[in-house]
Amino acid sequence: MNQDIAVVIGASGAIGKAVVNEKLKHNMHVIAVSRSPVNIKHPYMTMYECDYSAQSILTIAERIGRIYPKVRSITVCNGVLHTHENMPEKKIESFNNDYFATLLHVNTTIPFSWLQAFMPYLVSTETPCVFTALSARIGSISDNKLGGWYSYRASKAALNMLFKTASIELARRKCNAKLMLFHPGTTDSELSKPFQSNVPSSKLFTPAFVAEQLNKFEQNREFNHEVDFIDWQGKPISW
Q1: How many domains does the chain have?
Q2: pLDDT of 194-213, one tens digit each?
Q3: Strand, coil or helix: 235
C-alpha cells in the first residue's frame, strides 16, 4: 500500500469521527479504532473495534504496525470530563476517588498505553510519524488561576508530564516520531454539553473545525525531539 496511513483512536466520538473524515478528505487511508462501530463507509477506511484493555491495545497496535508500513499520524481522541454520577469538582469536599480514577484511566492511562503499544513500530520505522493526544489548557499548572475541576486538571497534567518525559526518551532512542498535545478548545460534543451555556458562540467550535486545525498542525510539525503542547490556533501553551 503506497497511501499514507492515519490511525485515529476513539474514532466514534465527536472529535474522533471528525478527524477520520478530515484524514479521508486528504486521501489518507484511515485506520479507525473505537469501542463501537464508526458510522462512516469509505473504501479508504479500515475499522478495528477495541475494548481498551491493555491486551486489546497491544494486539491492535502490533497488527497495525505489522500490516501498514507508512503510518504518518496516530491521533488519540479518547477523553472524559463528567460521568452520570459526577461533575467536575468546585470544592475539595466534592473530590471522589472513583471519579478521579475514571478520569485518570481514560484521559491519562489509555493515551499513554497506545504510545507504549506503538513503541516497537516507532523505534523501527523510517516513516516520520506524529503521535497526538488530546490534552487541555486546564492541564497547565502555570496557567491555573481559577482552581476547581481537580480530577480533570490532574488527569490532563499527568498526561502532559508523561508525554514530556516520553519525548526525552524518544530523542535518546532516535525515534522518527513527534509527540503533540493538542488543546481543541470547547468543542460541540457530549463532553462539553453541560457547560456550553457559558461559552460564547464564537468560542464553541464544531468538531469539523477542530479536526481541520488538528490535521493542519500534524502536517507541519518540526521533528525536533520536543513535545508540542499547543491550542487550536497552533499557539504554545505553558506547562
Answers
A1: 1
A2: 666 676 666 788 999 999 99
A3: coil
